[in-house]
# Entry
Amino acid sequence: MNAFMNVEKGNLLFYKAPFFETTGLVTHGFTTRPGGVSEGPYSALNTAFHVGDAIENVRTNRALACEALGIDPEGIVAGSQVHGDRVEVVEYRDKGRGARTLEDCLPDVDALVTAVPGVPLSSYYADCVPIFLLDPARKVVALAHAGWKGTVVKIGRKTVQRMTAGFGTNPGDCLAWIGPSIGSCCYEVDGRVIRLFQKSFAYWAMLTVAASPGKWRLNLWEANRRVLLDAGLLEKNIAVAGACTSCGGDLFFSYRAQGGITGRMASLIMLK
Ligand SMILES: [Zn+2]
# Structure
């Protein structure tokens, strides 16, 4: 299975999961930097309000991205992304929460689940791991934001469990795509982070490589893949894009590579 496909729409470039496209059930994508109107560290397609960019530019960029994917930009739903483990089920009445302002998004939420067609879910990234989920049997989609903290608390598994509790999802039916994010090539962490991984993952040693005294490189893609396997997903139904946002050059915003002041890419998914 191909782990990702690049789709160009005008000046924009999206990463997509080929096996999501094949179902015909969703429109989805992970945005990249080219093609937007923002400037400086936010150049060009910054999609997040909270990073210090001009709000009007963010709205324009989101509209460009959404229109290219066939999504209504006024309808997108966002959580506040606090590196926690709260999963929210999104209903029709939530449509547009977080589309126009940061303040209106769903508070204290890092994962979104919906079974409502036409309600687009969104989340925002500069190195953290975007997990896209699609249950083609029950027609349910989800997005989970997994930085190292979300990975430690296994937000991917909690999201799958919420799909099961709310909609009867059988994890064996579920497709998952781990989108572009920081790779183990670039993601160096210290002992404080490693100790939390040791507590949370019996197989933590498989997720880390010693880099230098007191430093390790951490494989968040494999950690989240294992979390999804533990949740009952099948190996053949999980794909890792394998694109590193930190050393991926001009295509990506990277919190690490750009020293903290940077834009965000968006993950977007909507049931048709
Ligand atoms: Zn890298």
Remarks:
- The first strand starts at residue 5 and ends at 9.
- Residues 183, 185-186, 244, 246-247 surround zinc ion (CB under 6 Å).
- The chain has one domain: 5-183+220-271.
- The mean pLDDT is 97.
